[in-house]
């Protein structure tokens, strides 16, 4: 069917053809500079490269794993819609790249996927979120009690199992709500962290941002500005709604600050307070306070929710492991109560969570970086300016030479190796990329690991857990560059006697 809408002589057919030609030219010129890098998934010559693109979009996971096997120790490229993505399959080169100065190889998901248009380009030059997350990490011990209390209250409300019958629980929405409540207890406190409208806003906003990142990888660059403008309008609306919940607290806090300066008795120690202080110091107002909170939520909610759901599916399949972890949790809380110190002692739980994330994602590649100036690596590999590069998360995580029997889920893999100096869940390396690696590794991971341990430890101590279908772990879904936990599955919960 021919498109017939007419805009003063220019038909939509012209627009579509023009866009397609522009796209082909963009692809042609970007591929020309990267001819020396082998392509995986299909040919890189103009027009035919659409096959490589199709294969990547249809089965990105297989394409990247095949590429890793074939070009281990070297680099290869795969087709995204608007550019080529070069994947570095050599830990030494990954380490070398992440040490290069920012002026040569820059970081930012915000920049690479143009989401700076949504969150604001000033976050690139003045990353307030990093200052806030550093403060959060420093205060993990102090905020743990509140977070744990929220985990407890949320489970009691949302998973009201009894000792007699198994209760089917739809894992995806329930765990998302628990994660969002626990994090937002520390971010905005009670009662906002329990408000259904606020929770709905944060959960769906985080999901949408995740989808937007995915969308940017398949939308050609000439269309990204348009998508970004639409997304910005949605963002502004979300900020206004977020402010509706935050204004009373902002007003109270600013009144206290105006009266008492930096310190007063019972001054709250939470994200909203730190955000007010950081934004005020920059002469910014309430719009920026909400913007910052939403940006941090967008990093915190979806990733941690997915990790909890994966861990829940994994533990539901392993009752003996659940018992072994319960013993460890019991011992730790007997010594230190429900505190951050106790979670530090939960080494088997740490290993289980790290293994669950090794196997389950969240992305098939990570550590996106942008080559700003031409770079030649020590092995002679050359990247022209403008090249987008990434590290092969899934390839490394499933490499038998790095992890013996890599495709086997071995929950105590890292615990058993600890004597040999094996790292913990928060530790990143070119071989363990769940949180990225290097100077731009996830700044929220220390909080994330504490939250994950609090949730899993609570769950283990208070419930017996089994899969809905005996012996069947709900299958993951691949979407673009992402690996998602099954969104439809239920898990069975029964209250434990000892709970
Ligand atoms: C299991 C949970 C989490 C996972 C798997 C995860 C993963 C990641 C990854 C892979 C990156 C990119 C790193 C790189 O390119 O080297 C990242 C960045 C980021 N994460 Fe996380 N994250 C998690 C939890 C959190 C939490 C709880 C927060 C906030 C409290 C957070 C805030 C952020 C922010 C703000 C960035 C962007 C940093 C920047 O722009 O410099 N994340 N995360």
UniProtKB/TrEMBL annotation:
Supply the PROSITE patterns for this chain: CYTOCHROME_P450
Q: Which cofactor does it need?
A: heme
Keyword Lipoprotein attached: no
In its keyword annotation, does this UniProt entry include Ribonucleoprotein?
no
**TM region positions:** 6-26, 38-57
Cite the binding residues for heme.
Answer: 442
Keywords associated with the record: Heme, Iron, Membrane, Metal-binding, Monooxygenase, Oxidoreductase, Transmembrane, Transmembrane helix
InterPro entries found in the cross-reference section? Cyt_P450 (IPR001128), Cyt_P450_CS (IPR017972), Cyt_P450_E_grp-IV (IPR002403), Cyt_P450_sf (IPR036396)
User: Which GO MF terms are attached to this record?
Assistant: heme binding; iron ion binding; monooxygenase activity; oxidoreductase activity, acting on paired donors, with incorporation or reduction of molecular oxygen
Q: List, alphabetically, the Pfam families matched.
A: p450 (PF00067)
Family per record: Belongs to the cytochrome P450 family.
What's the name of the protein? Cytochrome P450
């Amino acid at each position: 069917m021919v498109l017939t809408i007419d805009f003063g002589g220019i038909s939509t057919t012209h627009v579509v053809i023009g866009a397609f030609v522009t796209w082909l030219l963009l692809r042609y010129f970007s591929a020309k500079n990267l001819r020396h890098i082998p392509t995986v998934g299909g040919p890189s010559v103009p027009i035919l490269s659409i096959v490589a693109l199709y294969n990547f979009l249809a089965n990105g996971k297989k394409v990247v794993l095949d590429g890793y096997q074939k070009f281990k120790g070297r680099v290869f490229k795969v087709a995204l819609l608007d550019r080529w993505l070069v994947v570095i399959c050599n830990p030494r080169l990954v380490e070398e790249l992440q040490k290069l100065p920012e002026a040569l190889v820059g970081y930012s998901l915000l920049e690479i996927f143009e989401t700076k248009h949504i969150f604001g380009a000033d976050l690139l030059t003045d990353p307030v979120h990093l200052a806030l997350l550093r403060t959060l990490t420093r205060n993990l011990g102090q905020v743990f009690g509140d977070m744990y209390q929220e985990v407890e209250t949320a489970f009691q409300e949302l998973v009201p199992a009894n000792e007699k019958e198994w209760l089917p629980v739809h894992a995806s929405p329930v765990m998302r709500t628990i994660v969002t409540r626990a994090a937002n207890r520390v971010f905005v406190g009670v009662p906002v962290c329990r408000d259904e409208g606020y929770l709905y806003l944060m959960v769906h906003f985080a999901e949408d941002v995740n989808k937007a990142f995915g969308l940017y990888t398949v939308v050609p660059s000439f269309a990204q500005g348009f998508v970004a403008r639409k997304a910005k309008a949605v963002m502004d609306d979300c900020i206004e709604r977020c402010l509706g919940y935050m204004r009373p607290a902002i007003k109270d806090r600013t009144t206290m600050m105006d009266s008492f300066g930096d310190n007063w008795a019972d001054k709250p120690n939470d994200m909203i307070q730190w955000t007010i202080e950081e934004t005020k110091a920059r002469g910014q107002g309430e719009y920026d306070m909400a913007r910052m909170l939403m940006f941090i939520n967008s990093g915190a909610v979806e990733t941690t929710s997915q990790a909890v759901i994966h861990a829940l599916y994994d533990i539901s399949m392993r009752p003996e492991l659940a018992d072994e972890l319960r013993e460890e949790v019991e011992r730790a809380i007997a010594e230190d109560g429900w505190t951050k110190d106790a979670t530090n002692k939960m080494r088997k739980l740490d290993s289980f969570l790290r293994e669950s994330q090794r196997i389950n994602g969240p992305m098939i590649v990570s550590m996106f970086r942008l080559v700003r100036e031409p770079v030649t690596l020590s092995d002679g590999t050359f990247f022209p300016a403008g090249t987008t590069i990434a590290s092969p998360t899934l390839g490394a995580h499933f490499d038998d030479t790095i992890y013996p029997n890599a495709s086997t889920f071995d929950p105590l893999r890292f615990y058993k190796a600890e004597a040999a100096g094996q790292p913990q869940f928060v530790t990143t390396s070119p071989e363990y990329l769940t949180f990225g690696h290097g100077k731009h590794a996830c700044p929220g991971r220390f909080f994330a690991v504490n939250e994950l341990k609090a949730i899993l430890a609570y769950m283990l101590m208070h419930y017996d857990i089994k899969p809905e279908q005996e012996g069947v772990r709900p299958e993951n879904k691949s979407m673009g560059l992402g690996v998602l936990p099954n969104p439809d599955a239920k898990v069975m919960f029964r209250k434990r006697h000892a709970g």
